[in-house]
Design brief:
Blueprint lengths: L1 H10 L3 H8 L4 H19 L9 H14 L4 E4 L2 E4 L2 E3 L6 H5 L9 H8 L2 E5 L5 H9 L5 E4 L3 H13 L5 E4 L2 E2 L4 E7 L14 E8 L1 H7 L4 E6 L5 H6 L2 H7 L2 E5 L4 H12 L5 E6 L11 E6 L1
Parallel strand pairs: 4-5, 4-10, 5-6, 7-9, 10-11
Antiparallel strand pairs: 1-2, 2-3, 8-9, 11-13, 12-13
Helix pairs in contact: 1-3, 2-12
């Protein structure tokens, strides 16, 4: 998103979009928005731009260098570990394992509600988020949706390595309607939204969350959505579930400018009583993993 959004900032008058995005947000969320946009615009206009990190950011980056990366253990062929978690490939994402999806952004009341209900993991990848949710955030089940065959097979290995008992892998993509689509395969960033150059493709089955819940009734406390720019299509197919159950949600908004500026106003237009935060965990990037946190107070 860095180049795309940076260019978008230069070429478009986004004053009204920024005002709309900032409505009803806390000061920390507003500061996050302006930090991201300022840095992206500086990168776009100045090829020699160097980020001026705050003291807290420098400290966090040093901790990642000293405490996270050095402790990822190569155990044997096809087994890697960090802090009691195991994966079949060396793909320990900072946002997932170090920051634990920054779930601290939710209130204690919301976290308690999540603990006692099921979780929907949209964009399950290799099951990395699911094993963190299982261990730390819910006593119920996690339904992890992953459409790419290679990732899905790796997810099954992840569940086996971690002796997972409450994660239900589902080999489907989630979107606005039932259909078959070509997905551009690019590791953790495989996308239904756009086609990567030189990427391979796979035909995947797309269903809606609403149809899945109709066939498999359950109480949902939390939905995590990270599907490479297909988030708004997912929301269209999940609107009934969201309106009736009002789960807490973590929605990635960093994949393109349309998601960054428009997902929050879209959900606000439903008048469901959600409160919002925008947060980006510290890593070595500018906008990666920026997420919208939604909860009913």
């Amino acid at each position: 998103m860095q180049d795309v959004l940076g260019k978008y900032l230069i070429e478009n008058n986004i004053h009204e979009k920024i005002l709309k995005l900032c409505e009803n947000l806390d000061n920390d969320s507003k500061a996050t928005i302006f930090k991201i946009l300022t840095r992206l615009k500086n990168f776009q206009t100045n090829p020699n731009y160097q980020i001026k990190y705050t003291k807290e950011e420098r400290q966090d980056l040093e901790r990642l260098k000293n405490e996270f990366f050095p402790n990822i253990l190569s155990i044997s062929k096809g087994i890697f570990g960090w802090n009691g978690y195991f994966l079949p490939i060396r793909q320990f994402e900072i946002s997932v394992f170090w920051h634990k999806h920054a779930m601290h952004n939710f209130s204690n009341k919301t976290l308690e509600n999540i603990r006692n209900k099921n979780i929907i993991d949209v964009g399950g990848f290799i099951g990395d988020s699911a094993i963190v949710f299982e261990k730390e955030f819910t006593n119920k089940k996690i339904y992890s949706f992953e459409a790419v065959s290679k990732n899905y097979d790796l997810m099954l290995k992840t569940l086996e390595l971690n002796n997972s008992k409450r994660i239900i892998p589902v080999k489907n993509a989630l979107g606005s309607k039932q259909e078959k689509l070509q997905i551009s395969i690019s590791g953790y960033s495989s996308s239904l939204k756009h086609s990567e150059k030189n990427s391979t493709h796979e035909e995947v089955e797309v269903i809606t969350l609403d149809s899945y819940i109709e066939k498999n009734p359950m109480e949902i406390g939390f939905i995590k959505i990270d599907i490479e720019g297909f988030e708004q299509e997912f929301l269209k197919g999940a609107i009934n579930t969201i309106k009736t159950q009002k789960p807490a949600m973590l929605i990635s908004i960093y994949h393109n400018p349309d998601d960054f500026f428009n997902i929050k106003p879209l959900i606000e237009s439903w008048n469901l009583g959600y409160k919002f935060k925008i947060y980006r965990p510290i890593d070595f990037y500018v906008s990666l993993e920026t997420a919208l946190y939604c909860e009913i107070d």
